[in-house]
Design goal:
Largest sheet: 2 strands, antiparallel
Number of strands: 4
Shape: globular
Oligomer: single chain
Order of helices and strands: EEEEH
Strand order of the largest sheet: 1-4
Structural class: alpha+beta
Number of domains: 1
Number of helices: 1
Strand content: 35-45%
Length: 61
């Protein structure tokens, strides 16, 4: 599992010429996942991305 975080002015996802989503200014995460990746891999990557300081962590309620 790999992730690339990139600041963008805008971004969009097109699949077979059809728009499936778009954002304005913000952060884009390009995520690569393999069939063999586990939830433990996802948790590890989440902690790694959170540690960059790019994304605020939710506060406990």
């Amino acid at each position: 599992m790999k992730a690339l975080i990139q600041r963008v002015k805008s971004a969009a996802v097109d699949i077979h010429g059809e728009r499936h989503g778009e954002i304005g200014p913000g952060m884009l995460v390009l995520l690569g996942v393999e069939r063999t990746d586990t939830t433990a891999d996802a948790d590890k990557l989440l902690k790694k991305c959170s540690a960059t300081g790019c994304f605020p962590m939710p506060t406990a309620r």
